[in-house]
Amino acid sequence: MLVSIYRYNPDTDKKPVMQDIEVSIPAGKDLMVLDVLELAKQKDPSVTYRRSCREGVCGSDGMNINGRNGLACITPISEAVKPGQKLVLRPLPGLPVIRDLVVDLSIFYKQFEKIKPYLINDKPAPAIERLQSPEDRAKLDGLYECILCACCSTNCPSFWWNPDKFIGPAGLLQAYRFLADSRDTATAERLADLDDPFSVFRCRGIMNCVAVCPKGLNPTRAIGHIRSMLIQQGT
Amino acid sequence: MVTNVTNLGRSGLFDWIIQRFSAVILAAYTLCLLGSFVAHPDMDYLQWRSLFDSSPFRFFSLVTVLALCVHAWIGMWTISTDYLTSLQLGTKATFIRLVFQAGCALLTVVYLLWGIQIFWGS
Ligand code: SF4
Ligand code: SF4
Ligand code: FES
Fold first, then answer.
1. Is B42 an interface residue toward A (CB < 8 Å)?
2. pLDDT at A39
3. A40 alpha carbon to ligand 3 midpoint, in Å?
4. A161–B1: do the CB atoms touch at under 8 Å?
5. Residues of B with CB below 8 A from A227's CB?
6. Quick one: what percent of chain A has pLDDT higher than 70?
7. Please, which residues have CB within 8 angstroms of residue A59's CB and are 6 or more apart in sequence?
8. Most exposed: A124, A141, B8, B97, by fewest CB within 10 Å?
9. What pLDDT does B4 receive?
10. How far apart are CA A38 and CA A29, in angstroms?
11. CA angle in degrees (0–180, nearest 5) for A92-A110-A75
12. Where are the domains of chain B?
């Protein structure tokens, strides 16, 4: 199988190039894209990428696979390419490249930081723990599972245009995760922080984020909930 | 909180609601106009004139011109802050964007005054 990999070292290269590497896939096996990448690295050890858990839990190997963002470790090649096609691997779009498939996620994390991704509760702490009813706990389903792989935000045109001002789908999903938490008492402050023309309202409902999330989460729906909360608060 | 001085309503929610509200007015006006064409298939100039001379319709037209201007301004402002940023244009971005926005603002005001003159002028 032919693998085409984006190669770029900003310190020494004038511009990025695509390097083709031929790897042999064991017959009758459907490997994951990450396995193919490991095989390619055996041929050329200078190929650089991030990975850790190799089972879709850590979120470090988000990349653009044949034009679609995803986690290399849980994307089977049968799903990524049609038979006889090349496997084309590029870094997540829209962020500065550090080396090959490794991108600089600083601005992504900065947006995450902005939404204060931790519980804020000004009531005195109870002796053991803050309890939550099963119904309230259920409100966090579909939100807390995000692994911050950045596949969604780097697939969002609004995030490409304004990565410094628009929180992006990943950050907004987490913003709603804390807005929806019955133990959090900072709802009004959180909403006030989001009510500008950029943080939330740059979302145009294109749903690119939903289409690629490897965990099957729905940031667009969370953004809709935030918008409703803002409307309710504003009226 | 991202702050910006040139948008209309200061708050993203306000802009968002105004944008949708003005869209409804524009749609309603379009439907009314189309409806009057359908109701009078062979409308002549006099009928056309009397339609636009009636006070409710003149008022509706004025409101629509206002809605159009507000809608256009929010839309153009959003486009300019999406595409005319330092990411695409470098250090000159703020200047280019302000010139573009000033041009849009001027056009909007001209259309507004012109519209008022057409509907309420004589
Ligand atoms: S929402 Fe999905 S795609 Fe986005 S960062 Fe979280 S897990 Fe990744
Ligand atoms: S729905 Fe919103 S956040 Fe998701 S990709 Fe589209 S614009 Fe971005
Ligand atoms: S290596 Fe951890 S998510 Fe792919």
1. no
2. 96
3. 18
4. no
5. 13, 16
6. 100
7. A71, A147, A148, A149, A150
8. A124
9. 64
10. 15
11. 30
12. 12-120
Q: Using a CB–CB cutoff of 8 Å, tell me whether B108 touches chain A.
A: no
Whether chain A has a CB inside 8 Å of the CB on B11: the answer is yes
Confidence of residue B6 (pLDDT cuts 50, 70, 90): low
CB A63 within 8 A of CB A70: yes
C-beta atoms of A158 and B82 within 8 A? yes
Of A162, A194, A230, which has the smallest distance from its Cβ to B82's Cβ?
A: A162
Residues B16-25 pLDDT 10s: 999 999 999 9
Query: Rounded to 5 degrees, what angle do the CA atoms A158, A162, A167 make?
Result: 75
B16 touches chain A (CB under 8 A): yes
pLDDT in the model for residue B53? 86
The percent of residues in chain A predicted with pLDDT above 90, rounded, is 94
User: Which pLDDT does position A187 carry in this prediction?
Assistant: 96
CB contact under 8 A, A201 and B1: no
Domain B12-120, CATH number (from 1.10.10.410, 1.20.1300.10, 3.40.50.10260, 3.40.470.10): 1.20.1300.10
This prediction has a pTM of 0.90
Q: Would you mind telling me the total number of residues written for chain B in this entry? A: 122
